[in-house]
Amino acid sequence: MLETLKQNYFFAVVRGKTEEDAKEISRYAIKGGIRNIEITFSTPNAAKVIRELSDEFSDRDDVVVGAGTVMTTELAQEAIAAGAKFLVSPHFSPAIQEVAKKADNLYFPGCATVTEIVSAMEAGCQIIKLFPGGVLGPGFIKDVHGPIPQVDLMPSGGVSIDNIAAWKKAGACAVGIGSALASKVATDGYESVTEIAKAFIEAAGE
Question: Which residue of 29, 83, 148, 174 sits 20 to 30 Å from the alpha carbon of 53, by its own alpha carbon?
Fold first, then answer.
């Protein structure tokens, strides 16, 4: 599962206005080639969306549905019960990592300092989300990889078509793409999500 997530490289961070909005953004992101789908708990009835998308794409080994904005152990348990294959939060919680570990799930915590990164690594987290990515910048990955070359870092927040190549060159093992994916839905419909997804993949040289 971890290798599939890293091979897919792109995580669609989906903050749906409604259940159907989240599902449509996810479907059109997958059409565009982004196959890691992170349904955030800021989405109404997020667990239901995770369950329905997991069922819908159950025949696709390359599509992985997980949960984002997992702030508590209760939400972690709810996400896992709904079929989430990974958990992401904006912070590092040893308690959430323990829930994930017991369920043989994956937890990618948000970290912004080397101390947080090392703490998360020692707890067994296998990908560390760099958040907020727009504040830290690609140079942060290069700096961290100096003393800690083995850590897998995934920026989220601040990843754009203009800087995706820089993040990849700096050594990001994956990237999270949020509001940019759905930025044109209101004016151009859900097909725009597919086009933006393709543009990200092209800009990264994938």
Answer: 174
